[in-house]
Amino acid sequence: MIINVKDIKKSYTVGTQEVNALRGINLSVEKGEFISIMGPSGSGKTTLMNIIGCLDTPSSGEYELNGSLVSKLEDDELARIRNKEIGFVFQSFNLLAKNSVLENVMLPLKYAGFEKSEAVKKSNEVIDKVGLSDRLAHTPAELSGGQQQRVAIARALVNKPSIIFADEPTGNLDSKTGKEVMTIFKELNASGQTIILITHEESIANQSNRIITIKDGLIKSDNRGTHD
Amino acid sequence: MLVEESIKSAISSIKTNRVRSFLTALAIIIGTAAVIAVIGIGSSASKALEEDIDELGPRTLSIFPSQRKRGGVSSGFNPLVIKDAEALAKNTEHNWMIAPAMSGNRQVKYQNNNISGEINGYLPINFKVRGFDLGHGRLFTDKENLGRKKVVVLGSKVPGELKKSVKDILNQDILIAGTSYRVIGVLEEEGSTGWQNPDDDLYVPLLTASQRIFGTDRLGWINVGISNDTNVDYVMMTIEEILRQKHDIGPGGENDFRINDWSQFSDLRRQATGIFTALIAGIAGISLIVGGIGVMNIMLVSVTERTREIGLRKALGATHKSIMMQFIIEAVLLCVLGGLIGVFIGTSLLYLFATFNDWPFAMPISAIIGSITFSALVGLFFGIWPAKRAAQLDPAVSLRYE
Ligand SMILES: Nc1ncnc2c1ncn2[C@@H]1O[C@H](COP(=O)(O)OP(=O)(O)O)[C@@H](O)[C@H]1O
Ligand SMILES: [Mg+2]
């Protein structure tokens, strides 16, 4: 079991009003799973991803990642976990505009403290995996949306994380490039990579082997592997 | 590698906002330029002073007559006389050059031209002590002095004042107070030394001046030329001893002369220049601190603008420390770049100023290193707070920032 979440709650205070973004989530994820999280806008999907991605801490509840309790960790320990154990892919790609493909992919390795030569080698491997070896020196502006998202996937992969979180990764892409990106996720999962993917689209969710739907901060349904 | 990444990111951020970065660094640029120019001008000034002193040749002490008081009551004026100078010259213990002189204004006439000239009674050795060089003709000799010969050496501007070229006046007779003197030489231009203008003066043998022009053996002053490695205190003691004996001053009696050490005076001037320089440089340094506040302001703006980037970096594993480092390096780099431009401008200003004033160009390397280091410290100090703000941003919230 990679992830074990027990009764996670998250509330925000906006002015005088309390917003309960998560109202008691229980979830466990096994190694090698490919999970889709669905739900209407504002239902708490991103909040959940942030918490299990160690970007945020829950208001209450317990969270174990790879067997250790992380809900009470300090900032720098969380930073280390984000660096080594987790890879993020965002809807808006979030690449550094001034940096080349190679530099963008190398960034997590810099924070991990790798030597440059080794970082370049590791980065080249993952860039090759997403099929962008011929675009190493390009900046994001010189790439299509689909290519940019593939760079982001390479960046998420480069530190060999236990799990990849993708928050609506096809949300900014047309359906054709969206499909290409999904193909990459499926290939990664086929080689054992654990993936949690947030999406609006049924057709995307159907390509995973477990679909969780969230509404108003609670899990409504959790359906395992119907597709092949 | 993280440091390298921080520097790269800082350069890219500064480049992206070229104009803004420049305006932000402007106060740092101006501050550094001012500090550098002031320090440079100060050190060039004292170098110029030093060169002036070196040009004076060997170190010179001057003895002047002065009022003597006995029991608080002034007892009249005790002049320095030629015999005092002779007594000093007889001393062989010191390898000094005794150069007694007297001076006064007299009518100088050549053909139709009349001027009032400062006539100096000199020994030949006086020229050496003052470091005067001969331009044309010759200087008078000791023999001519002893013979009270009517010969005169002119300062370089005197022929012009008499509306004659050097060639026209050399070896001619001019009238000094109605008596004719043979012009045997003209000096090279010496330049004003601030309190004297040797180029406008005329020089005759001391005994000639004493007996034929001024009618007195009272001296205006005695210059004592000593080599630079002489023990000045000991020389002064010897002078005192000899003159007190000559003037019959008993134990406890006050001197009726005073001894000036010109180089001491220059030391004082140099010190004053130094203090003044430090003061102005300090004031200019304050503008660096004002610049630092501007840098802090822009860094805060930059942190806000890059909230999303900071969130992303944190998502990828950036720690508190690495985000701090990134922004501090950016602030320091901005200030150091400003400092470098400022040094360049300040040095150029100094160069212009020194060239214009005909001063030597002296820019202490320590001032350059010091002011760039100071700029870096300003960046460090004023970068800390914005960097801390960046590091403390909540990654989840930052990633939602539009
Ligand atoms: N930092 C925050 N402060 C206040 N409210 C927030 C914050 N982050 C999220 N929320 C609220 O929490 C709820 C869930 O948001 P989110 O997880 O982004 O939903 P989803 O990703 O499913 O669209 C929303 O009502 C949102 O407004
Ligand atoms: Mg969302």
Question: Can you offer a commentary on this structure?
Answer:
The complex is a heterodimer of chains A (228) and B (402). In chain A, strands 6-7-8-3-9-10 form a six-stranded mixed beta sheet, sandwiched between helices. Chain A is 34% helix and 29% strand. The two termini of chain A are 22 Å apart. Chain A has helices spanning 45-52, 75-84, 101-112, 116-129, 145-157, 175-190, 202-205, and strands spanning 3-14, 17-29, 34-38, 60-65, 68-69, 86-89, 163-167, 194-198, 210-215, 218-224. In chain A, helix 5 packs parallel to helix 6 (175-190). In chain A, strand 4 (60-65) and strand 5 form a beta hairpin. Chain A is an alpha/beta fold. The longest helix of chain A has 16 residues, at 175-190. Chain A has a single domain (31-49, 72-224), classed as P-loop containing nucleotide triphosphate hydrolases (Rossmann fold, 3-Layer(aba) Sandwich). Chain B is α+β, with helices and mostly antiparallel strands and 402 residues long. Chain B has two domains: 2-53 and 267-398, no CATH class; 59-226, no CATH class. Chain B has 14 helices and 14 strands. In chain B, helix 1 crosses helix 12 and helix 12 (320-357) packs antiparallel against helix 13 (365-392). The chains are: A alpha/beta (228), B alpha+beta (402). Chain A binds chain B through residues 46-47, 50, 53, 55-56, 75-76, 79-80, 82-84, 88, 90, 94, 96, 98-99, 107-108, 110-116, 119, 155, 159, and chain B through 1-2, 4-5, 12, 16, 308-309, 312-322, 394-396, 399-400. Bound molecules: adenosine-5'-diphosphate and magnesium ion (MG). The site of magnesium ion has 3 residues of chain A, from helix 1. Magnesium ion binds next to helix 1 of chain A.
